[in-house]
Write a structure and sequence with these properties.
The chain is an alpha+beta fold and about 110 residues long. It has one domain: Alpha-Beta Plaits, CATH 3.30.70. About 35% of the residues lie in helices and about 35% in strands. The chain contains 3 helices and 4 strands; from the N terminus they run E-H-E-E-H-H-E. The protein has a 4-stranded antiparallel sheet with strand order 2-3-1-4. Strand 2 and strand 3 form a beta hairpin.
């Protein structure tokens, strides 16, 4: 699903991952983090694909909202588990969206 974001500017956090072979609790944790993120002030939406290369893009209204999400206690614990168990490597990028546009075919 493509997130419905407000008019730019806003912020995107791009989280790219390479997984280990260990699935122990990963899907449940990923779903919980998505639900928890939706409850955070400043959250705007999320888009995610999880295959060999996982990419999750979350959208936020400010850098302060992103920092609060980073420091959320439950998110911090799951991040630690990700480093210890689920991820071989990850890269996080924070970007300011200056402009966006799209297309949707009418059915």
């Amino acid at each position: 699903m493509i997130a419905k974001t407000p008019q730019a500017p806003y912020y995107a956090v791009i989280f790219s991952t390479l997984r280990t072979d260990i699935d122990k609790g990963y899907l449940e944790a990923a779903e919980r983090m998505e639900e928890l993120a939706k409850q955070q002030k400043g959250y705007l939406g999320i888009e995610s694909v999880r295959n060999e290369l996982g990419i999750t893009v979350s959208y936020w209204d400010s850098l302060e909202a992103i920092l609060k999400w980073k420091n959320n206690v439950e998110h911090t614990a799951v991040r630690g588990q990700g480093r210890a168990v689920w991820y071989k490597k990850y890269q996080l990028r924070i970007c300011k969206v200056e402009r966006d546009y799209g297309f949707e075919k009418e059915e």
